[in-house]
Specification:
alpha+beta, 5-stranded antiparallel sheet, 20% helix
Amino acid sequence: MTASWGTLGHLWNKDVAIIFIRPQRYTKEFVDESDTFTLSFFDDKHKELSYLGTKSGKDEDKISNVNFHVEMVDGNPTFKEAKEVFICKKIYVGKLEKEHFLLPEIYEKNYPLDDLHYVYIGEITDVYSNK
């Protein structure tokens, strides 16, 4: 999944990554089934990310279509083409709730289908660089 909504920080005395996944995303199934998830960061030269962000792996083998190469790092999938990879251990999962939005226009603009994101907080356990 190509994502742009997330953040890195420090929470509960841990270095963390916080990611947001809509309920209909195919990636959600994989993240829910595992105790860990990876975040793969790419150089700007990888225009393939635009394609990956508009297609579902449920409908096609989109990874092969862009000629990326899956590799396992500590038992977690990532891509040889990534410049950095964060390995994250899930420590919290929750769902955004409509009634908690203090600015209704944010909800209205981003959730016309009422498909609120799930929030995943992962402790960053390892970082790999491919420089």
